[in-house]
Each structure stands twice: as C-alpha cells, then as structure tokens.
Design goal:
Layout: H1 2-31, E1 52-55, E2 60-62, H2 63-66, E3 71-76, H3 83-100, E4 106-111, H4 119-129, E5 134-137, H5 140-149, E6 154-156, E7 166-168, E8 172-176, E9 180-185, H6 191-202
Parallel strand pairs: 3-4, 4-5
Antiparallel strand pairs: 1-2, 1-5, 3-8, 6-7, 8-9
Length: 205
C-alpha cells in the first residue's frame, strides 16, 4: 500500500510539473503576440530607435513622423550598381502584395551615401520604386546615428575618377510605432515570402 501511494505521489508530482511547464510556455507565447512570426534570433531585441533625417522635400523629419504604421526600412544608396535597386524593388513588390491583401506598410529608403544622395536624389529614387516610398538622407552625423540605431554597417571605398562604391549591410527592418523594431529580413527572400512574413506581424498588431 505504501509503495502504491508513493507511485501515485510521483505520478501526481510529474503531472503537476508537466502542467506547470505547459502553462509557463503558454504564458510566454501569450506574452509575445508575435511569437509565431519571429524569424530571427534578435527579433524584438534592442534594435532601432529614434532618428532625425531629411526627406525628399529637404525638410528635417523625425522617426516618429516617418513611422506612423508598420514600416519596412532599408539602408542603401542610389548609386549602388546592383544590390540596392534589387532589394528596394523587392521591398516595393512585397508592399504591393500586402496592399492587395488589405495590409498597409510604408516602405522607407535611408541612404548611407549622403554626399551624393541629396534630398532630390532620394526623392526621385523612392518615387521610381513605389508611390508611397519615403526617401531619406541627411548630414553625415544624422545618417551615422540612424545606422547605429539599427546596427547597420557601411563604408565607402576610396574614389576612382570621382566615383566610388559603398559597402553596406543589406537587411530590411520591420518597425511599428507601437512596438518599435519587430524583425529583420535577409535579401534572399522573394517578394511573396517577404510579404507573408510581414503580414504575419501586421495581422497581429
């Protein structure tokens, strides 16, 4: 009888432990409304933040003025010969897919080459990519601060005959006014897959 009681006690304790573990995991998932959407280890981490840049009209704007809904941010430069145009076009295509699904996301392009990318240049570049895309530039200090906030990398090569390339990271960042940075996406994703990943977040806001 004592042995049976001990076995029952062990079984009850084990069941209680399993129940507590399940509830704990459920509470964790409930606490993160975007848990099912997370695609990166640092998603939702200490990335992003306030910035102050210059828009295509030459006006100084803050991140609060730019990020008024789910926003997809890309750091690049308009003189980029291949990577940037492809990445920004992919982002624009994903935003169009989301629009067809009834989800609104603002595409943003931030230059890492403010010496050549004047307000007019980033405005024309953004307009050519998507009618709602926002092009941003600024002083060296402003661009550097925005880049550091998102932990991006860029470095200009020495000029050759007045021309130069800029090495830079190629992630796209999803942010919202309510939650800040949510996730980043690699350039290997196609427009449809990117739209699916962004849409997962948007429908849970």
């Amino acid at each position: 009888m004592i042995r049976i009681a001990a076995i029952v006690a062990v079984f009850v304790a084990g069941a209680a432990l399993i129940s507590m573990t399940v509830l704990s995991q459920r509470d964790t998932a409930d606490a993160d409304q975007f848990a099912q959407c997370r695609g990166s280890q640092i998603a939702g981490g200490d990335l992003g933040g306030a910035f102050e840049l210059v828009n295509g009209a030459g006006d100084t704007v803050t991140s609060q003025q730019i990020i008024t809904e789910p926003t997809l941010i890309y750091f690049g430069y308009t003189f980029c010969p291949d990577v940037c145009p492809l990445d920004v076009d992919r982002n624009a295509a994903a935003v169009e897919i989301l629009e067809e699904r009834g989800q609104s996301v603002t595409p943003v392009f931030i230059t890492v080459d403010p010496a050549r990318d004047t307000p007019e240049v980033v405005r024309d570049f953004a307009d050519a990519m998507h009618p709602r895309m926002i092009g941003l530039t600024g002083s060296d200090a402003q661009v550097s601060a925005a880049s550091k906030a998102y932990k991006t990398y860029y470095k200009a090569h020495p000029p050759v005959d007045g021309e130069y390339l800029v090495d830079h990271s190629t992630f796209s960042y999803l942010v919202t006014p309510e939650h800040g940075f949510l996730d980043f996406f690699r350039r290997e994703l196609g427009p449809e897959e990117l739209a699916d990943k962004i849409g997962c977040y948007v429908e849970r806001i």
